[in-house]
User: Which sequence fits this backbone?
């Protein structure tokens, strides 16, 4: 019996976000504009998907200030890394069934 695909990660845009964040070392962060540019997503679209990932506990979003400029940092949580590992294993299982 194969594993279920995580519907939170399975959406293409959220999968791209999680995979991009997974390339960072554990505990490293990326700014919202940096992630937006990297993924070539609009701010609104990225915000919606980050909200769903944060709700699932897969990303941590920290809003702070650099001087007077608001800055948002995003990092993949330990739970998010585990979810991606499980998702990848489920995909591999599905491919092995072919």
Assistant:
């Amino acid at each position: 019996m194969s594993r279920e695909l995580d519907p939170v990660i399975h959406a293409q845009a959220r999968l791209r976000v999680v995979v991009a964040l997974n390339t960072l070392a554990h505990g490293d962060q990326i700014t919202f504009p940096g992630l937006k540019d990297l993924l070539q997503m609009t701010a609104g679209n990225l915000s919606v998907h980050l909200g769903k990932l944060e709700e699932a506990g897969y990303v941590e979003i920290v809003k702070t200030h650099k001087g007077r400029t608001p800055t948002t940092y995003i990092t993949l949580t330990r739970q998010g890394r585990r979810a991606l590992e499980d998702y990848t294993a489920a995909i591999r299982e599905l491919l092995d069934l072919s």
User: Anything to note?
Assistant: The chain has a mean pLDDT of 93. The CA atoms of residues 32 and 47 lie 9 Å apart.
